[in-house]
Amino acid sequence: MSTDSGITQEGASTQGPARARIWRSIVFAPEGDGNRRRRGSDGFRLGAALVIVLVGLAIVRVDPGPEHEIVHFFSPPPDGIRWLVTTTYILGSFGLIVILGAVAFLSHRRAVLRDLTLAGAAAFGFSALMWLVFGSTGGRPHDASLAGYNLEYPVAIVVVVVAVAMAALPYLSRSVQRLVELVVALAALATVVAGYGLPVNVAASVALGWGTVALLHLVFGSPLGLPSGEELAAVVEDLGVLVGALQPSRHQVWGVARYTGIDRSGGPLAVSLYGRDAADAQLLSKTGRFFFYRDSGPTLSFSRVQQVEHEAYMTLLAERAGVATSHVLVAGIGGPSRDAVLVVRSPVGVPLAELVESSLTDPLLDACFSSVLRLRKAGIAHGALSGDTIIVDPEHGVVSLVDLRTSSASPSQDRLDADMAGALAAVGLVAGPEATAAAARRVLPEAVVTAALPHLRRASLDRVTSKALKGRSKLLEEVRTRTAQAFEIEVPKLAEPKRVSWGTLIMTIGTLIGGWALILVLIQVGQSFDTIKGAAWGWVAVTAVLAQLAYPSTALSVVGTVRTALPFGRVVALEFANAFTSLAGGTPATFGTRVRFFQLQGSDATQAVTSGALVSTSSWIVKGLLFLISLPLAWSSFNFSNDGTDTSGDHGKAVWLILAVIVAVIVLIGVALAVPRLRRLAADKARPKLLQIWADLKLLAAQPSKLIEVFGGALAAQVLVALALGTALHAFGEQLSLATIFIVITLASMLGGVSPVPGGMGVVEAGMILALTAAGVPENQAVAATFVQRMFTSYLPPLWGWFVLAWMRKREYL
What we know:
The chain is mainly α.
């Protein structure tokens, strides 16, 4: 008996942990490699969720009739099934949150519990933020037929439960995932049927919860890690390559999983795995490179098969050109997830970045530049040359170029020059400036070096090289100087700050004048303070967004004014930074900042000058056309009389005074052109610039896309500024036609343009207030709307422009 009892107790003691392991294996998926990674598909989920929420917001403000029909068809439910609907709602919302939290707690999965808590808190926070900005109903008009229904937009409990469920899914097994998704869908349906949320509100709430988790995964990484080396080895062997062992590489890149290993004979292998989100990741990566780098990367592929084929093709093309690189073994689709896999035999050697200066002999340095030059002669741009992609074999004196994922077989001249600049920087980081310059002199043609040196700036280099240069800002300057001296060519110079000039002094005086005018406007604002307090803050938020979108639009115009590539994101940052520099130093400071930015991007000062002139010219052309189009449509809306029907008092006289000043300026320009001496002086000063602008426009005309960028960006900027004024008027219960607003803004801009004040501050406000009152807007509302619009277009941007300027200087973009 005692023996049997002992056996029973032992069996019970072992069955407990075994049963725990069994239920955990049923509920949870394998943990994988335990690492968190950002996935491209999460970026698209976030974008889709944002679109759905905004579209839903627009729909609820209309309060469409079809939604009412759907609501009254499903709700309220028949009495016989009301209990079932309520039970489904409770279990699928509050119940699901409790169940998932309890399972995570009981299984001691702290990471799961942490993610669920963070997702739920973030979801509720975003819901509360939307209530604060747009109101608890999202701006839905009052409708008696919806009495008794929950009009909340978004529906907080739906947002939270979807976020918690989506955060849990990566940790759950496939069958439990499907069960959770079914419960969430039934809970959303029950929410509508029970009247706890309207259809559009519930759909937007589901999207908001979904997007919240996507955002968290983009910030902190997704728990969906890489497949194990054993799993990938099985896929590779299915493709015909026998593998001994595989393990994830230490350095992973966005959109592709990298593995290293050996085959059955002991030879080194490298495997690239393109998963389901590879195409999404490449599109996001290409978009990011377009924003922040001169080169947006390889041609866009819309499937993982195309991506793996592109890398394999470029590797074979480089190998055929005589460049030492990886040897392609197989490229294909395999595994249960049908992932795309590229298997190559890795070249012998170590990355250049891991070597020390003493191990780099002259023949090895010469081989580095010879390999890049050979790739260049074959018409191939690598696109990511750095100390990690240049492999050196000191024993055999061979240098290989690997990882051609971002390469191109039809590159622009800029990409080829940037490649050579990347090679100079990568070698300089290890060998030092003197040895780099000497090797370049022995191997490279003078024309190639002359074209590459302007690109030898941290802002123009690959992200890996740029990161390695952090804290070594003087190194690139030394490499550039030593290399130029070795070839006896001129070192590219950066624009230097200027001393205070008479123009700056006049601008300072004008600033004082504008400040006085602004004080007068602010006095009017103080008198209208009660009106401002009663603003509809949702419209104020929309005004803020529209005003900031004008800066990217102007940046698009800047990008279009140059024939070479410019990183769009950095140009946007430049425009924000110039909001501060124009206020602090006027036009000279803005000009100097623009010139320095262009030079650090590998362009010359001439392009900066002509770009600024083209942007200003295109802006005024667009303003003039919009003004002329708007005049016959909206001029009758203005009341310039002063006969007692003018409710704005003496504003009619003031508006006529503004027009008189503008006409006087035009007359003075005409007189200057009529007097021979003044005409010659104007011709000497202005004619070269006008001829240059005309020449640039003719060159850009050969590239219609550039003209679209120049004038499309200018048009978008003007429309956004006008819409910002329109939404500011809506915030105070007023509205004007878009044509009327164009006239108001153009008149104010002309007045500010003829005044020696940075940004026309103070003068523009006065002109806008006078024009708005002439258009029939009460004075208090005109003052309040002008203040709100100018606050987001002129007063606040210099504040964050200063931070952007400091950030750009820190990153050596300026």
